[in-house]
From TrEMBL:
Protein name: Pyruvate dehydrogenase complex repressor
GO MF term (any one): DNA binding
Protein function: Transcriptional repressor for the pyruvate dehydrogenase complex genes aceEF and lpd.
Stretches assigned to the HTH gntR-type domain: 12-80
Keyword Repressor: yes
SUPFAM superfamilies referenced in this protein's UniProt entry, alphabetically: GntR ligand-binding domain-like, Winged helix' DNA-binding domain
SMART domains (alphabetical): FCD, HTH_GNTR
Keywords for the protein's UniProt record, in alphabetical order: DNA-binding, Repressor, Transcription, Transcription regulation
């Protein structure tokens, strides 16, 4: 029986390996949607490859719509990455208050999972980044700057998603970032009408931050749940108060007539 000649496995092209590495960096959030990639020379040095191989990898990514090269302006990650929730849907969800509770339930599920894995997996670099976001939020809270606070609140929660090291979870939350930011802004504006609420919300964020830093996943998940239950309870109470005020006004108008 004659033996078949040995056939060498087809070697992977260098440009394909570079492309895969860049894709991984986009997926794990190293390069975010709309962000400009480092210069060609810097990337070639980082990957220890030739510039022609790097250029070929970027061309392949551009052909797939993952990046876009602007003439004389560098290469950018597509701003469509993670935009699975379109603007019309965002507008619809944001303009109907009855869906606010659906958003809170969704956040409870996803962010609870995110906090759980962040407590398990956060690296020293992740913890340094999370500390930076937390301290910025703390400062905005001290200054009682509601607009800045809502922005930094959303960024704090997104930082936790990055610490979880689950790209599906990260991009699901990132695709909802605009809705999340609007939701947080609306929630804080309503909550902070009650003077005590601002301090209570920050105490909840502190508990969440400390649980992740201490590597306590169940405590981190419970902290997310407690925070969102607090928000939901207060919003429901405020709605009931609004409803009572509206009924009183209607009765008063009828009596005047």
């Amino acid at each position: 029986m004659t033996q078949r000649p040995f056939q060498r496995a087809k070697q992977t092209k260098i440009s394909d390996l570079i492309m895969q590495e860049l894709e991984s960096m986009i997926l794990d959030g190293t390069f975010k949607a709309g962000q400009k990639l480092p210069p060609e020379r810097e990337l070639a040095e980082r990957f220890e490859v030739s510039r022609p191989s790097l250029r070929e990898a970027i061309q392949k990514l551009a052909a797939r719509g993952v990046v876009a090269t602007k003439h004389g302006g560098g290469t950018y990650v597509s701003d469509q990455i993670g935009s699975s929730f379109t603007d019309p849907l965002q507008a619809l969800l944001s303009s109907h208050d009855e869906f606010l509770y659906d958003q809170l339930e969704f956040r409870d599920a996803l962010e609870g999972l995110s906090a759980y894995y962040a407590a398990l997996r956060a690296t020293d670099a992740d913890k340094a980044m999370l500390t930076q976001r937390y301290e910025a939020l703390l400062e905005a809270n001290r200054q009682q700057d509601a607009q800045q606070e809502s922005k930094l609140d959303a960024e704090f929660h997104m930082a936790i998603a990055e610490c979880a090291h689950n790209v599906v979870l990260l991009h699901t939350l990132r695709s909802l970032f605009a809705i999340l930011e609007n939701s947080i802004s609306a929630n804080l504006s309503n909550l902070f009408e009650k003077k005590a609420a601002r301090g209570q919300v920050m105490t909840q964020h502190k508990a969440l931050y400390e649980a992740i830093m201490a590597g306590k996943p169940e405590e981190a998940r419970a902290a997310v749940h407690s925070h969102l239950v607090f928000v939901e309870d207060h919003l429901l109470k405020m709605r009931r108060e609004e409803s009572r005020i509206q009924r009183s006004l209607r009765r008063s108008e009828n009596a005047n007539r």
